[in-house]
Each structure stands twice: as C-alpha cells, then as structure tokens.
Amino acid sequence: LPPAMEPIPAKPLFYDLALNFVEFPDLTEKLEGGQPKQKGAGISGFVKGLWGWGKK
Amino acid sequence: MSEKAERDKKAITSYYSELNRFGQNGEYERAIKAANKILNLAPHEFLAFQYKVICLIELSKFDEAIRLLNGNAQFDNQLTFEKAYCLYRANKHDESLKIVDQIEDLDLRSKELKAQILYRLERYEEAAALYRDIVKNTDDDYEDERHTNLSAVMVYLDNEQTKDRIE
Question: Is the minimum CB–CB distance between A56 and chain B shorter than 8 Å?
C-alpha cells in the first residue's frame, strides 16, 4: 500500500517577462539603401522567377 | 584623409549588414564580432554598441555586459533598462532597483522589470501593487504569465499574513 499523500511546500512558478522586452534596435537607417533597395530586389526576383517558370 | 573616411563609411555599412544578419539569425558571437569591427572604426556608433549589449544579454553574459556599460559612460544613460536587467540577472537586486527608480516616467518594460526585482527583494506588497497596475494597463500576449507571477507574489503575501496571525 502506498503511503498517504501529503502536501509539500513548493516554490511558485515565476516568469522572467522582462527578458521579452530586451530587443534589438532597428538598423534600417544604417543599412545600404534601406527599404528602396529591398523593393527593387523583390521585383527583379519576381521577373527572374517568371523566366525560370517559362523555361521549365 | 577623406578617401579613408569614405572607405571607413563603406566598411561600416557592410559591417552593419553583417550585424543585422547575425543578430536576426541568433548568431550572437558573430554579431558581437561585427559590432566590434564597427566600434573599432567608429567608437561613437551607438546602435552597434546597443546591439553588442543585447547580444551579451542573449548569451547570458551579464557581468561582461555590466562591465561594458560601466566602461562607456557616453552610452550608459541611454541603456538604463538594459543595465538594470543585467544587474537583476547578476543577482545585484538593490543596484538594479536603484537604476530603475532613476528612470522618469516608467515605461511598461521597466515596470515589468521593477516588479520582478521587488519580488526578488521580497517586497511583496509593492510587487503586487505594481503587477495589478501592469495587468490593468496592458494588452499583450503575456497576460497569463503575468497572472502567474502575481499569483507567486500572492503566495508569499499570504504566508506572511498567516505568520502574522500565528505570532
């Protein structure tokens, strides 16, 4: 027969929520061209994609 | 001279793109190296410095982050939350609280940190009051965890009150 259950003290759960608010700063202003360049790459990628699709 | 400045500027831009990529990919050691390259060329680049501090936090190198912040007084007062967080994780709760208390207009993240510090300092009444304030004034994905933390605070508040009654 197992011994009777009895409650034992337990440390309550406690989350480190502040860690979630440690975030990297936005570097966009330091990167070359910033957003406009990304847009260009997106369009050429799309066109290249179309050519590739045509060849297949 | 101006040619060198031009070259440095280009190098810094390319190091920033490395920094950005490594940071986003979670490659913090390599990100720190990229940040160091920027800071060697331009010691006043705040964003590179801030990035480096946060990488050290992600790597749990809190003592090193504290040393870095202490050694750079020109950036130090712009990263009070980060510094207080490092001190909190290094178990220097009193020092951490002192810094948080210097912040004017506590924002949410600083309140969250302050509540955690108060909990570690066993100042449960204050922690509970602060958590109630935070819960009332936020609407994010951490509601459940925040209630869990408030419950933990309440456990100790309850214990203290019970003890008072017994004594």
Answer: no
